[in-house]
Design a protein that fits this description.
heterodimer; A: alpha/beta; 2 domains; 10-stranded mixed sheet; 11 helices; 23 strands; 23% helix; 34% strand; B: globular
């Protein structure tokens, strides 16, 4: 019998190392006002934040679960540890980071990437940032890249954070936004002043090491007029049999004529529920570009949203999702055209195999005031076997006649015609299939920074072997 | 009165978009059933005007049966319509639908392609003005191997009209070789219209081909420039384009009597229909 061409699942062994935790550092699992107060105490929150957390808990308790999307029945919040105490203070000296944590990030290549190609790096381990550093010349230009907690206590930024924190994603947005508001910890604050352009990226890496825990980091980025930034985030966790939860929140404020590129490679282990919320608001002639690779987690809900709020603002979303065995990845994007002459472009690819399920879900809304706006959505899905599933659920809402909105979607398998064409030119059938699958993902990988494109290729692990069947 | 949920999207999505279902207090009071036996070939024309109440139509197509179903909705009052069809091996259903206004029309079309090489072709057009509302939910469920569906929808919205079109192609496991396509073109003629389009593909089978597309907006500026340069005023260009979207469907209707009824409903004179 012929062996059917195989495209392997993502090889996660590289990410599955872990270190034992001292459970004395864990707060009790579950959610209660006492736990929230304890988190506030541990973090020395200002008074407004203490109140904000408790109010968010109240919203969480009365907000129903979403009535659509992947099943999250296996997630019991009462079994999730929402906060793990910091072992050491956050460092700007890599050598001062605790040895086990240092080894974790050394294995993931973070310090090496910092030395070679980044303007600054932040590393979060469980609930808290353990390392944050920014190059001297970048700091001199006025760019701030630090952990959110430090910035919140700095008189220079305290008001700015109070004015922006969870204003784009309010706790009332959905149940897990409320949860985030109650228990958030860690994450980054980035401020880029007017007319400052960062040519090399900043990167934050989030690592959840503890078993049965949640990570709730908050990323707040503010770009002033005519500034630019490329921000990269990476996420991973070792595999456990208990469910883990990631309910982070990203809020991006892109000023007039400013430009922000936000790249993510998400590779949580397959016990993780990734219920993340990302949102950007873009002012006049500003631009937001999202590049998103979703490979890990058991269940994902991830739809970065762009609100185009100033005339001529634009958004571009490029995403790839690879759903393998045991994964239900519900991903996509949302775009709101809320000013004249705005434009958006969405280009996504999904691959499903070994019983995995990928869902592309999107919403493009063109409001009454968005006259002269243009939007184009393109999504393609590839099924690699007959036991997997791939769904496409886009929605378009248009409230003005003076706009142009287009949508194209395609689903299928590797076409026999393409194989025939390539084999007629002397390429073996096996190689032809490999080329087509790689080419399918290539549109997205070429949008990633080089080191991340290499990581993505490693992640996909496109191994073609055996004869063709 | 308790409301009933109609037009339920097979896979619900973001609740804030208001597309997951249509809740109405209208009740379906009448069901028409048709069974077309093997080898049969029938033309069914339903002209739903103000005399008809909300109605359900059920069609069973036995192997190799052929049906052309023409449905015209020319009802000013709120109404709910449901069409359910089951298509057996080698059978073909061709559906032509035209929606002329209507204060609040909800139309559900649920087609199961159960047999091998079962075929479904739909050509749907609508024109809405004033504060008219239309909600269409079309589901083509592919169970049969090599079954095909081809769905074309086009329409014109003006004034404060609001329309929802949800089109789902659902490839079930085992429907190998199935092909489904869906396209909607919406022409918007007023700044106060609301258009919602939800083209869904659900896929549990590897060996299928599915695609959908949608184009929503105004007339292409190059098209307007071309016609203006030939002396046609802009107002007329919009009118002609809107008519052409409807004529694409009207000309498919075999009955000249039905066509005449449609032209009267649209307020088109004899010269216009030429």
């Amino acid at each position: 019998m012929k062996d059917k061409t195989q495209v392997s699942d993502i090889d996660r062994s590289f990410y599955d190392f872990r270190y034992e935790e001292n459970e004395g550092d864990f707060l009790d699992s579950g959610l209660s006002a006492d736990i929230i107060r304890e988190i506030s105490e541990e973090k020395n929150d200002p008074e407004w934040m203490r109140e904000f957390r408790l109010k968010s808990l109240d919203i969480y308790n009365r907000t129903p679960m979403v009535g659509w999307g992947a099943s999250i029945e296996g997630l019991d919040i009462d079994n999730i540890v929402t906060y793990i105490r910091q072992k050491n203070r956050m460092n700007t000296d890599w050598n001062a980071v605790p040895e086990d944590i240092k080894q974790t990030f050394e294995k993931l290549g973070i310090p090496q990437a910092e030395r070679e190609s980044l303007a600054g790096v932040g590393a979060q381990y469980d609930s808290e940032l353990v390392y944050h550093n920014v190059r001297e010349e970048v700091a001199k230009s006025g760019v701030v890249y630090t952990d959110l907690e430090s910035a919140m206590h700095d008189p220079k930024y305290a008001d700015m954070i109070h004015a922006h924190f969870m204003k784009l994603v309010p706790p009332t947005d959905h149940k897990f936004a409320a949860l985030h508001g109650a228990v958030w910890s860690g994450g980054s604050f980035v401020y880029v002043p007017k007319n400052v352009h960062l040519d090399i990226p900043l990167q934050s890496y989030f690592r959840l090491n503890a078993k049965g825990a949640g990570q709730f980091e908050h990323t707040l980025i503010i770009l002033e007029e005519n500034s630019s930034l490329h921000f990269i985030e990476g996420c991973s966790a070792p595999k456990y049999y208990e469910a883990g939860l990631h309910a982070g929140c990203v809020e991006l404020y892109v000023g007039k004529d400013a430009s922000l590129r936000y790249s993510t490679i998400e590779n949580w282990s397959k016990n993780m529920y990734n219920l993340n919320t990302k949102r950007a608001i873009v002012q006049e002639n500003g631009r937001i570009e999202w590049v998103s690779g979703s490979f890990g987690s058991h269940v994902s809900y991830l739809y970065p949203m762009s609100i185009l709020n100033g005339r001529g603002a634009s958004a571009e979303f490029t995403g790839i999702t690879f759903a393998g065995e045991g994964q239900d990845l519900d991903t996509g994007a949302k775009i709101v055209h809320n000013a004249p002459d705005t434009s958006s472009y969405m280009n996504t690819k999904s691959i499903s195999k070994s019983g995995g399920k990928s869902t592309f879900r999107s919403a493009v809304t063109v409001n009454e005031n968005a006259v002269g706006s243009k939007s184009s959505v393109n999504c393609e899905s590839l099924m690699l076997d007959g036991i997997s599933r791939s769904d496409t659920v886009p929605a378009i809402v248009v409230k003005t006649d003076k706009c142009d909105v287009g949508h194209e979607a395609r689903i299928g398998r590797i076409s026999d015609e393409a194989i025939f064409y390539l084999t007629s030119r002397g390429i073996s059938e096996e190689e032809a299939r490999a080329m087509i699958v790689r080419g399918f993902a290539d549109n997205v990988s070429k949008e990633l920074p080089l080191e991340y494109a290499v990581e993505m290729n490693n992640l996909i692990g496109l191994e073609m072997h055996g004869s063709i069947g | 009165m308790e409301k009933t949920r109609y037009n339920i999207l097979p896979v619900p999505t973001f609740g804030k978009l208001g597309v997951n279902h249509a809740e109405r207090d209208t009740v379906i009071s009448e069901t028409e059933e048709y069974r077309i036996e093997s080898g049969g070939d029938e033309l069914i024309i339903q002209y739903n005007d103000s005399d008809n109440s909300s109605k359900r139509t059920e069609l069973i197509l036995d192997p190799n049966a052929k049906v052309r179903l023409v449905r015209v909705f020319d009802r000013p009052e709120p109404a709910v319509s449901e069409l359910k069809a089951v298509i057996a091996e080698g059978a073909e259903l061709e559906l032509t639908e035209l929606y002329i206004g209507g204060r609040d029309t909800v139309s559900g079309i649920d087609v199961r392609l159960d047999g091998r090489r079962a075929s479904f072709k739909a050509d749907i057009a609508y024109t809405l003005s004033d504060e008219e509302k239309l909600d269409i939910n079309l589901v083509a469920e592919h169970n049969g191997k090599k079954s095909t569906s081809e769905i074309a929808v086009g329409g014109v919205l003006s004034d404060r009209a609001a329309k929802v079109f949800k089109g789902t192609i659902d490839f079930k496991q085992g429907a190998s070789g199935a092909v489904g396509s869906e396209r909607e073109e919406v022409l918007l003629l007023s700044e106060n219209v609301v258009n919602k389009t939800v083209p869904v593909i659900l896929c549990a089978e590897e060996d299928v081909e599915g695609n959908h597309g949608a184009t929503i907006g105004r007339i292409d500026e190059r098209h307007i420039f071309y016609m203006k340069s030939r002396g046609i005023p802009e107002e007329k260009i919009y009118e002609l384009t809107a008519r052409s979207r409807l004529m694409r469907v009207i000309k498919q209707i075999e009955s000249s009597e039905t066509q005449k009824q449609i032209f009267e409903a649209l307020g088109w004179g004899d010269d216009d229909e030429q």
